[in-house]
Amino acid sequence: MNFKIIALCAALLGPLMATTAHAERLKDLASIGGVRQNQLSGYGLVVGLDGTGDQTTQTPFTVQSITAMLQQKGISLPPGTQLQLKNVAAVMVTASLPAFAQPGQTIDVTVSSMGNAKSLRGGTLLMTPLQGADGQMYGMAQGNVLVGGAGASGGGAQVQVNQLAVGRISGGATVERAVASNLGADNQVKLELNTTDFATASRVVEAINDKFGPGIATALDGRVIRVRVPSSSDQRVTFLGILEGMDVKPAEAAAKIIVNARTGSVVMNRSVTLDPCAISHGNLSVSIGADTQVSQPNPGSLGRTVVTQTPQVSVKKDAGKVIMLNGGASLAEVVKAMNAIGATPQDLLAILQALKAAGSLRAELEII
């Protein structure tokens, strides 16, 4: 199995490697503190299933839920009654409450079986309260469950069936309570960078102050930036809209390599560099160095001697096959050269770990 190489800003983005990072919108680099989603969940029942519901003998909580629901509706079951239902399923209902959501607004919900129901297709979710982490109810869900992933093709000769125990209701919940927001309290907001980086934080502060005036933005640390905003809510919204649309050139990311040991995929950014080294692993030999070239001027000329070093990478097997790469001793080329001679993902992982341990790999190595 050959490993796959995904060298960011390398093979596919080669022309961009020599350029600096492009400017990005501030909304893509940071978020506004307090402007976030809130997770909701609730326990409910799906009815109307075509014999694909919970086996009540093995899911007693389904029977208990049905009994409690009937009692709320004023229906009392005779003592000793054993319910044998196949068209009911106990489910968990989850949803994300958007920032600034107001009562009456509808949101999508996901319905997931928590028993042994075979399918939720064709079922109807009964009215289910949705609570937040504080235990308060913020929404009410109900509606017909839509389950995808089942179909036939080729006259029914080929059937594809995916997960049928999870469904979705578009606009299936109504917001009943708004989450209090303190956006703009004390006439300030906090920008939170997606990735902690002191250089990027400094550039964001500089860009904001250049556009709106000195003292408007202040960096609290490598991730949080405090920004003064207008006191009027209308002006504040306009200000934040302009702020999010600003272009800021982020600092170059730290060198990092992600290796997936299961698939053999290697992902690296352009900051990854290698120092001269030599590795012997099994029947593989990897040599990374530099080819020194000296350019002498003609006698009597006013020129000067120029010494240049061209990076070299050579990878070979004991069988004698050698691949020599000049003009860029990057890890991307090392991986490509190893791939060309049939090295395995395990060989690559071992060599990367050895390079890191020896201090020749100038990058953070993460294996997933």
**Structural class designation:** alpha+beta
Q: Percent range for helical residues?
A: 10-25%
Task: Count helical runs.
Answer: 6
Mean pLDDT: 79
What does this structure look like?
Belongs to the FlgI family. This protein is of the alpha+beta class. The protein contains six helices and 24 strands. The chain is 18% helix and 37% strand. Strand 9 and strand 10 form a beta hairpin. The model is unreliable at 1-20, 306-311 and 319-328 (pLDDT under 50).
Q: In terms of topology, how is this protein built?
A:
Elements: E1 5-7, E2 24-25, H1 26-29, E3 30-32, E4 38-47, H2 60-72, E5 88-97, E6 106-113, E7 124-131, E8 137-144, E9 150-153, E10 158-161, E11 166-175, E12 188-193, H3 198-212, E13 217-219, E14 224-228, H4 233-244, E15 247-248, E16 256-259, E17 266-268, E18 273-274, E19 277-281, E20 284-295, E21 306-317, E22 322-326, H5 331-340, H6 345-358, E23 361-362, E24 364-367
Parallel strand pairs: 1-17, 16-24
Antiparallel strand pairs: 2-15, 3-12, 4-5, 4-7, 5-6, 6-11, 7-8, 8-11, 9-10, 12-14, 13-14, 16-17, 18-23, 19-20, 20-21, 21-22
